[in-house]
Amino acid sequence: MQAKIESIDAGAELLTVDWAGGGSDHYPWTWLRDHGEDEASLDPGTLQRRVDTFAIDPGLRGIDVQVAGNGEALTVAWSDNSPATTLSAARLAECAGRLPEEGTLSPDHPRLYWAAGSLPDPVPNVAFEAVRSGDSGLGAWLRNIHVYGFSVVTGVPATDEGTVELATRLAPAKQTIFGDFWRLSAELADHGDTAYSTQYLDPHTDSTYYHDAPGLQMFNCLEFDGKGGESVLVDAFAIARAMHEETPEHYETLSRVVVPGRYLEPGVHLRAERPPFRHDREGNLVQVTFNNYDRAPFLLPADEMAAFYAAYGEFHRRASDQDNWLKIPLRPGMTLIFDNWRCLHGRMGYVGKRVFYGCYHDRADYESRLRTVGAAA
């Protein structure tokens, strides 16, 4: 979609823009001065603002407004004789919500919400060689993660070095108390966490005790000799959408009640809190946080506590329903990466030996790569 200006109307307080495709929007004069895209307003190299926002006179008015470029831009001359400001129709339309906002994540590849039976067969995957050899393969990997919340990578060397090469193709690994890269096995006792065991793990998100929980988590299978141990994924956004439609009172509770998470071991005490369902300014769900293992003690008034337990239990019931599960038996040569803000992950109990090497990625780093490399068709 291309934005084109049909006509304008300059008023005392604001400028009205009528669009060629229908509709109109209103822009305050101070906003127009603050959002100029000409070189005096915006550095063309860094795209950082040059306008001194705090020096703009609140009484500033546009005294001459001209539509340019066949409706694709406008130029404003100002009452204080400051340099004229130019804005593109695209920027005006974007900020008014008529075009996707700058930085929208992969707008041409919308998310697909799933239960186990609705996924493609085979599950979304890319080849290691494709990811490492060019941006086409890397982009396909990123889009899988965005669309489905996860991706398998095949043909990955079952080594620490292979894991690092794959992970850093996306972005630097995120440093946490576990390090940048970490080994996961029941034979290790590096941390007091149930992940370092052979027992079944309920589906959950990681790092509820971090204010900036990792955006992605990656496991590369180095060794497997045993039975069981399948990785479990659940699309928590699909569950949340179902709750919004079927039990809206529970959805509202999980969007409102702030739940603390904690991690304790000698020399470490991490704590953070947020609602299980977190939304952006427009009300879109952006993060699910759910980990009953790491939930810290908290108390609400009795009626609110009852509402929380009912809503939290409803979410757990749906997350525990195996109709919502994807089970992936990871073997050497296979890597699983998933969106820790969207997908719950768990593990079936196992006997034998199972060794993973993995890492986290920061959310901002992942989104940056998705906007730049993953946005390509």
Would you spell out the secondary-structure blueprint of this structure?
Blueprint: E1 5-10, E2 14-19, E3 24-28, H1 29-34, E4 62-68, E5 73-78, E6 85-88, H2 89-95, E7 125-127, H3 128-133, H4 135-148, E8 150-154, H5 160-170, E9 181-184, E10 201-204, E11 216-228, E12 231-235, H6 236-246, H7 248-256, E13 259-265, E14 268-274, E15 277-279, E16 285-288, H8 302-320, E17 325-328, E18 334-339, E19 343-347, E20 350-361, H9 363-374
Parallel strand pairs: 7-8
Antiparallel strand pairs: 1-2, 2-3, 4-5, 5-6, 8-18, 9-20, 10-19, 11-18, 11-20, 12-17, 12-19, 13-14, 15-16
Helix pairs in contact: 4-9, 6-7, 6-8, 7-8
Briefly say what this structure is.
Helix content is 25%, strand content 31%. With 377 residues, it is an alpha+beta fold.
